[in-house]
Write a structure and sequence with these properties.
This protein has about 230 residues and is α+β, with helices and mostly antiparallel strands. It has helices at about 1-35, 35-40, 65, 110-120, 175-190, 200-225, and strands spanning about 75-80, 85-90, 95-100, 135, 150-155, 160-165, 170-175. It has six helices and seven strands. It has a four-stranded antiparallel sheet with strand order 4-5-6-7.
């Protein structure tokens, strides 16, 4: 009787400690399972890539002339497209350089008009009224991305935002209302209220261990009940 009473007391105490987080875990897991990941990532409104045969490009600027104007050791050169236009992506020891493959001039950091063109090529919707915003301060929507970035607000029903890197000329993030819900629930789920990326921190480990002990004490009381 004394053992049963002690276990019941411990079980109740553990329940008081972890019941809110258990609600977050179960409710958060259900929410994340309910949301469509393609919609969370904005992939459902991503435009189909335009296939362009670069062999059809006329009078490309000689890549040797481009490389003659760089100062650092060259690691790689790639002929690519940015907003439908051919470019050279030159990777150097100190970073990336973008060059117009037709005129030869350097493109990065790209300006607002080119960032908007990149977003239009990426987004399946109307961006006629969009105005790029220069982002220099860290924000939870672009954590893990190198700043600064161009942000293009689409103004659609999901409040989609497209982030374009001024260095690479690529879309590095698509954020919308569903992503913000998912991200908030994820934060509660892993209990990382700062960076929202770390699921190995002590608070989560202690809470998970406490919840596991709560389950074990509940099972122990169930076994005692069956014996009775």
């Amino acid at each position: 009787m004394l053992l049963r009473r002690r276990i019941r007391q411990v079980h109740r105490l553990l329940g008081l400690v972890v019941f809110i987080q258990l609600l977050f875990w179960v409710g958060g897991g259900l929410t994340m399972a309910f949301l469509d990941l393609d919609e969370v990532r904005g992939a459902h409104r991503k435009a189909e890539p335009v296939t362009v045969d670069l062999r059809m490009a006329e009078s490309l600027f000689p890549v040797t002339s481009v490389l003659a104007n760089v100062e650092y050791p060259v690691r790689s050169v790639q002929l690519d497209l940015v907003a439908g236009n051919p470019v050279y992506r030159v990777t150097l020891a100190d970073g990336l350089r973008l060059f117009d493959a037709v005129g030869g001039q350097r493109l990065n950091p790209i300006d607002a008009s080119l960032a908007l063109a990149v977003a239009r090529a990426d987004y399946r919707g109307d961006l006629s009224n969009a105005a790029p915003v220069w982002v220099t301060e860290a924000h939870y929507e672009v954590r893990g991305r190198d700043l600064p970035l161009w942000r293009i607000d689409t103004g659609d029903d999901l409040e989609t935002r497209i982030y374009v890197s001024p260095q690479s000329g690529e879309v590095v993030a698509r954020r919308n209302r569903l992503w913000r819900i998912f991200d908030f629930v994820w934060m509660l789920h892993i209990m990382d209220y700062d960076e929202r990326d770390d699921f190995n921190h002590p608070l989560l480990l202690i809470t998970a261990g406490t919840a596991l002990l709560f389950v074990f004490t509940g099972l122990w009381m169930l076994v005692l009940t069956f014996r009775r």
